[in-house]
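Read as amino acids, tokens; as here:

___
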Amino acid sequence: MRFVKMFLIAVLVFGGLIFLLSLLFPSTAVLERSGSIDAPIGKVYAEIADLKTWSQWNPWDPAFAGQHRLAQQYSDPASGMGAWYTWSSADGSTATGRVEIATADSAKLIVYNMTHPAMKPVKGFFELKPTADGKGTAIQWRMETNVGLTPWWKLRGFMMDRMFGSSMENGLNKLRTRCEGR
């Protein structure tokens, strides 16, 4: 009985320490990458603003990730402010989600919201501006999510760059290839 009591006290103290330590982590997780594309802003903007092209370059698009048994539905039009798409698993699992473009300014910015039951809501930003020589497009892709106070979400937010940074870089590289190749 004494062993059980000591074990429970140790678990409570350890859990409390983990919670207090997690309070030191920020409650907003940010993932960010930037690069340049040798194509005009209009061409890059058109690729990003059209949600039907995301499956060709965006690593978080379910079709890009190889989940072929999906039912996808797009707004009409599927481009620009207010455009959205949803996906759900055709095999009955709970893989559902939605992306909606909240702001679309063809000269400099696209803001989108992404929801998925397994994640906290994500706000994404594509900021576009001319490169220094004026011949290409400088792009910054940023994703933010509020992870709250729960220790496991805060730890995941703290590790977000390490877990997903290479995927974001791959997405930007594929976007660059599509824009420069057309």
